[in-house]
């Protein structure tokens, strides 16, 4: 079973007592249906996609699987919108890594890719252990995804 380490993906954490209400008001996906994960986006006021991500419930908050190159910008933009909401927004890409598999569950706490069943499973795991679990790189995943 191939397990790909997606080193081109980053993770943003949104936690706190207002996390769900905060995200429900600004992202495109319905958080009531985010069990365990949902595909969503953050839009500009004009309706253009600024960031897209897979949103997953975890430990009383949410983890957003997004492009690593834009994870810090996504965290900054979400922080801009938080105003008085009791939420903590943080780019945690240095702590978490992404794994993907298209045959069976990747790791405990993994989830079906909500975009398409053929995209398989994903898991957000400790960044240091992710490369040790993986049997393939992100290129193998992207070849499969595009096919």
Task: Describe, in plain words, how this protein is organized in 3D.
This protein has 147 residues and is of the alpha+beta class. It has helices spanning 19-24, 68-81, 130-133, 138-146; strands spanning 3-5, 9-15, 37-43, 49-58, 61-67, 88-91, 96-101, 111-112, 121-126. It contains 4 helices and 9 strands; from the N terminus they run ββαβββαββββαα. The strands form 2 sheets. It has a 5-stranded antiparallel beta sheet. A 4-stranded antiparallel beta sheet has the order 1-7-9-8. A hairpin with a 2-residue loop joins strand 4 and strand 5. The longest helix has 14 residues, at 68-81. It starts with a strand and ends with a helix.
Structural class: alpha+beta
The radius of gyration over CA amounts to 15 Å
Mean pLDDT rating:
90
Count of helical regions: 4
What brief labels describe this structure?
147 residues; 35% strand; four-stranded antiparallel β-sheet; single chain; 9 strands; five-stranded antiparallel β-sheet; 4 helices
Question: Could you provide a short overview of the structure?
Answer:
The chain has helices at about 20-25, 70-80, 130-135, 140-145; strands at about 5, 10-15, 35-45, 50-60, 60-65, 90, 95-100, 110, 120-125. By secondary structure, the chain is of the alpha+beta class. The strands form two sheets. It has a five-stranded antiparallel beta sheet. A four-stranded antiparallel beta sheet has the order 1-7-9-8.
């Amino acid at each position: 079973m191939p397990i790909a380490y997606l080193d081109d993906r980053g993770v943003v954490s949104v936690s706190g007592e207002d996390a769900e209400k905060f995200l429900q008001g600004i992202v495109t996906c319905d958080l009531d249906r985010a069990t365990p994960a949902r595909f969503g986006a953050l839009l500009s006021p004009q309706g253009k996609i600024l960031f897209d991500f897979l949103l997953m419930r975890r430990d009383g908050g949410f983890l957003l699987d997004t492009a690593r190159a834009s994870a810090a910008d996504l965290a900054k933009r979400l922080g801009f919108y938080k105003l008085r909401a009791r939420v903590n927004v943080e780019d945690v890409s240095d702590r978490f890594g992404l794994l993907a598999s298209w045959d069976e569950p990747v790791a405990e706490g993994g989830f079906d890719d909500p975009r398409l069943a053929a995209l398989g499973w994903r898991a957000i795991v400790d960044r240091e252990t992710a490369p040790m679990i993986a049997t393939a790189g992100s290129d193998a995943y992207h070849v499969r995804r595009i096919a």
